Amino acid sequence: MNIKHYTDIPEEAVTKANSIKTTIRWLITKEDGSTRYATRRFEIQPGGEIGIHYHSEEHHIYILEGKCHLIDGNGKKILIRKGDVIYIPSNEKHGYINESSERVAFLCIIPYL
Amino acid sequence: MNIKHYTDIPEEAVTKANSIKTTIRWLITKEDGSTRYATRRFEIQPGGEIGIHYHSEEHHIYILEGKCHLIDGNGKKILIRKGDVIYIPSNEKHGYINESSERVAFLCIIPYL
Q1: What is the pTM of this model?
Q2: Mind listing the domains of chain B with CATH numbers?
Q3: Which residues of A touch B54 (CB under 8 A)?
Q4: Which tens digit of pLDDT belongs to each residue from B18-49?
Q5: How far are the Cα atoms of A39, A61, A98 from residue B3, in angstroms, in the given order?
């Protein structure tokens, strides 16, 4: 078994999908020996966002702290907050915007396709 | 997309592996349309435990709150706490015991094999 604290893992700026003030940590990946799916931790600072995008990887999301809006393919904003669990199917459009005064942090698990 | 709060999902007692004072919520599963892996949330109350066991499903674990001891195949206790990330490979023995005064909660993602 392999134990780390999330802060031990490098924090990288997210540049895809016109992201602003957003970082990612790849917590568990193929490099750990996990070949089926990867667990990542995102943080979006106040005023930050990930633009609407889509891809073939489905998402399992769990909100760890804070709140933000999830944006669906029609541009509709849905408030999501700590303790929320979100499933985004393959190829469904989605984005995030943090209009709150605190960072939002969430886990996002994706398959290796 | 499908959005729920974790408390909306039924909490079930864990009975496998000689578990004590432990519950599980199956947050995202095949029933949501996710066929590759499932995301579950465990809670172990003070004095609770999950006995040492093993299985072919690997684990991605993220500690959401509290602390407990992870027990490896040699019976060694390792303290794990909020923000820790743990990878347990397929067929590696592991257990958990909460000797603290507060509940520990963690996510555990397993593949559908």
Answers
A1: 0.97
A2: 8-111 (2.60.120.10)
A3: none
A4: 999 999 999 999 999 999 999 999 999 999 99
A5: 19, 9, 17
